[in-house]
Specification:
single chain; alpha/beta; Rossmann fold; two-stranded antiparallel sheet; 9 strands; NADP; Flavodoxin-like domain-containing protein; sterol metabolism; mitochondrion; cell membrane
């Protein structure tokens, strides 16, 4: 009888393990890797240009798909780039990635029905928009929102896709994508597929994104009559050699944060996209022990109109002395 009891326990254990493995596959193990996941993925198109008119930008660049991102830490921007790359390689879409703060949105009603607008929106803090999405969010959810055209409904021609990045440990989970989707649909826009929601709190952001995008692509292909093709590599830029340039040429990039810094014309307002290069006013060593040392550093931000508070980040832009390189 004791042998029978032991056998029963072994059989039950195998059944339980098999059941657990079945229900956790794809969540905790055997997770499918997205072939378009690349921290340095190409945006699939140019970023924001000089014009703030998205219609002009789409027409000038020959694009039919724009992916707007609202990002605080860069994750939403990365997902937007991956969507652009995948849309281009799998379906031949002419895609571009765009920062929400680089464009005006009173002409969204002029986006034609043969184009699609995607929104990848992170929720920041207690249900707030990210810094670069504040103006868009206030505009699209405002009670007196108005557009350039006299369409009825206002956004009846707009086809859109939406994915949100949130954290279920906060009260207003994924409020950005939920509120924006609600506002767009209220204005008559047509949502393609479900509005996806990724949950960083559960640690399933990547899995949620992968699970959302496949049915989204299916719905988008049906709506826009797209045919999936074999993925091929298509470079989005070419390299032209310029023999007349030297390291001392003023237009040669040597690590400057952006074009304005390269041209020596940096000016405010300063933000994450246009950083202020603050000089170190004072630096002294507080202590030095076997495995670490501690420095007291004072950074001069006078004249920048920047303010800071506890928890803010500072980036280090090191340069090597020319005679040591």
């Amino acid at each position: 009888m004791a042998e029978l009891d032991t056998l029963d326990i072994i059989v039950l254990s195998v059944i339980l393990l098999g059941t657990a493995a079945y229900f956790t596959k794809g969540k905790y193990w055997a997770i499918e890797k997205d072939p378009y996941a690349n921290g340095f993925a190409s945006a699939g198109g140019p970023k924001a240009g000089k014009t703030r008119n998205i219609i002009e930008k789409l027409d000038e660049s020959g694009k039919n798909c724009v992916i707007f991102y609202g990002s605080q830490t860069g994750t939403a921007e990365d997902y937007a780039s991956r969507l652009a790359k995948e849309g281009k390689s799998r379906f031949g879409l002419e895609t571009m990635v765009a920062d929400l703060e680089d464009y005006d949105f009173d002409n969204l009603d002029a986006v034609s029905t043969d184009k699609v607008v995607m929104f990848v929106l992170a929720t920041y803090g207690e249900g707030e928009p990210t810094d670069n999405a504040v103006e868009f969010y206030e505009f699209i959810t405002g009670e007196d929102v108005s557009f350039n055209e006299a369409n009825e409904p206002a956004l009846g021609n707009l086809n859109f896709v939406a994915f949100g990045l949130g954290n279920n440990t906060y009260e207003h989970y994924n409020s950005m994508v939920r509120n924006v989707t609600k506002a767009l649909e209220k204005l008559g826009a047509h949502r393609i597929g479900e509005a996806g929601e990724g949950d960083d709190g559960a640690g399933t952001m990547e899995e949620d994104f992968l699970a959302w995008k496949e049915p989204m692509w299916t719905a988008l292909a049906e709506k826009m009559e797209l045919e999936e093709r074999e993925a091929v590599y298509e470079p989005i830029f070419s390299i032209t050699e310029r023999d007349g340039l030297t390291p001392e040429s003023p237009e040669v990039y040597l690590g400057e944060p952006n074009k304005m810094h390269l041209e020596g014309a940096a000016k405010g307002p300063f933000n994450s996209h246009n950083p202020y290069i603050a000089p170190i006013a004072e630096s002294r060593e507080l202590f030095n022990v076997k495995d670490r040392n501690c420095l007291h550093v004072e950074v001069d931000v006078s004249g920048s109109n920047l303010s800071y508070q506890t928890g803010d980040h500072i980036a280090i832009w090191p340069t090597n002395p020319g005679h040591e390189v």
